[in-house]
Amino acid sequence: MQHGIFQHEEAAERDGQAAASAGDEQRERHKRSIYRVSMVNLFSNIGLSVVKMFAGIIGHSEAMISDGFNSLFDVVGTLIVMVGAHFSNRAADKDHPYGHERFECVASIILGNILLLVGLSIEKSGIQSILNPEKIVIPTMLPVVAAIVSITVKEILYHYNIRASRRLHSVSLKAQAWDHRSDVLSSAGGLIGIVGARLGVPVLDPVAALLIGLLIIRTAVNVFRETIDQMVDRACPDELVQQMYAEVESVEGVIHVDNLRSRQFGSKIYVDVDITMDGHLSLYEAHKVARQVHDLLEKGHPEMKHCMVHVNPDEETDHGPLDL
Q1: DSSP string spanning 136-178?
Q2: Residue 323 belongs to a domain
Q3: Largest Cα–Cα distance in the chain?
Q4: Beta strands in 173-298 (DSSP E)
Q5: How do beta strands 304-313 and 256-265 pair?
Q6: CATH of the domain at 293
Q7: What's the pLDDT tens digit per position in 226-253?
Q8: CA quadruple 191, 197, 200, 203: dihedral sign
Q9: What does the pLDDT look like over 14-50, one tens digit per residue?
Q10: How many CB atoms lie under 10 A from the CB of residue 17?
């Protein structure tokens, strides 16, 4: 009998070690994937910032210089995302038993602050130019070409990052994606302002710079709002919760789901589910069904880091209180 117990404990230990190894491998793949996307963002933004700053200075366009600063700070933002990915994918330890996923939220908040500061700086410069129209110089064609290149590259980067963020469940990559989309809009606004200035309305160039600044500030606010949702344990979307309800109820032995609570923890989610089962089942049988529920949810939702299943006995089948 003891031999059988020891075998069971050894098997459980091996399963635990295998699960830990699989978790480490998954975290490493997740980190490498974010690094790969971030490297594409990094070198693209470095190239665009150089092109736009050069075109803005040589081509006398305040809108294009502002857009160049925007891309320059995107480089800083990408580096922050990479650092956040490094720390958020570290394994749980004694001081952080629930893992480090919220480091990614910290990276997003820093990125949001940078975007906000850049946006406010551009607004200040644009207002000063509008108040001093005699100092405005008509832009050349060079900024026009740079704006078209920027719009094309940034739209491609948006789609690349948004797909990666959905696949990796990464809030920081999603923030990067929307930053690229805001860059598309800002470059488009800059293009309109530059062309308008060349057509005889010089003030349109600094006005376009103001528009770029406002779009950057709007992006910063969106990043703050989504990141805060991740940090305050906001529940998962209703569609996902309803899907999990249906999955749990499909398990044989589950009479009904009493409650299912979820919360977002950085890029991961936690779920607590209460289920009702036949009160006459043995502890072993009830545990077996609860394990099926647990495994079904965790395997079906890769973004789920932890699932807790609590079993309640059905009142109609329960033996009732003991007579003491």
Answers
A1: -----SHHHHHHHHHHHHHHHHHHHHHHHHHHHT-HHHHHHHH
A2: no
A3: 96
A4: 256-265, 268-277
A5: unpaired
A6: 3.30.70.1350
A7: 777 766 667 788 888 889 989 999 999 9
A8: positive
A9: 554 544 455 556 667 777 887 788 889 889 989 999 9
A10: 10
Token pair of 131, please?
A: 């108040």
What tokens were used for 171? 């809030």
Residue among 64, 11, 75, 53 at smallest CA distance from 186: 64
Q: Is the pTM of this model over 0.70?
A: no
Are 99 and 84 contained in the same domain?
Answer: yes
Pairing of strands 268-277, 256-265: antiparallel
Q: What is the rounded distance in angstroms from the CA atom of residue 123 to the CA atom of residue 92? A: 43
**Residue 208 lies in domain:** 2-231
Token pair 């969106």: residue: 222
Q: Which residue(s) pair with 311 in the sheet?
A: 275
Instruction: Write b or e for each residue in 180-214: b if 16 or more Cβ atoms lie within 10 A of its Cβ, otherwise e.
Output: bbbbbbbbbbbbbbbbbbbeeebebbbbbbbbbbb
Are both 36 and 180 inside the same structural domain?
Answer: yes
